[in-house]
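Researcher: We're teaching a course module on how sequence relates to structure. For the next exercise, students receive a sequence and then see the predicted structure as tokens, so they can try to spot secondary structure elements on their own. Here is the exercise chain.
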Amino acid sequence: MLPVSIPSILALALALAITSTAQEAEEVQVDYGQCGGEGWEGPFICSEASQCHEIDEFYYECLPLDAEVTVIDSPVIIGNPTKDPVIRGPNRRG
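Model: And here is the predicted structure for the students to work with:
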């Protein structure tokens, strides 16, 4: 059996910690990318220049730190409202 010293065990632990931290550091979401929400399995960390904001329970987005964020709780009309509008919002399917 090979003798194992405390310094070699500490060196191994440090190497594993650095490797783990480096892998986690790769999991940073880009600006305007999704960073959370119900069922989300991607990165939860935003870049240093942005912050994760809740848009709704299913979608969180990395927005720049200086962005004005206004979340409204009303329907959003997509497209030409006079021709087949698609209405999306709370309690609506679209």
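Model: If you want an answer key for the exercise: Residues 6-25 form the longest helix (20 residues). The longest strand covers residues 50-56.
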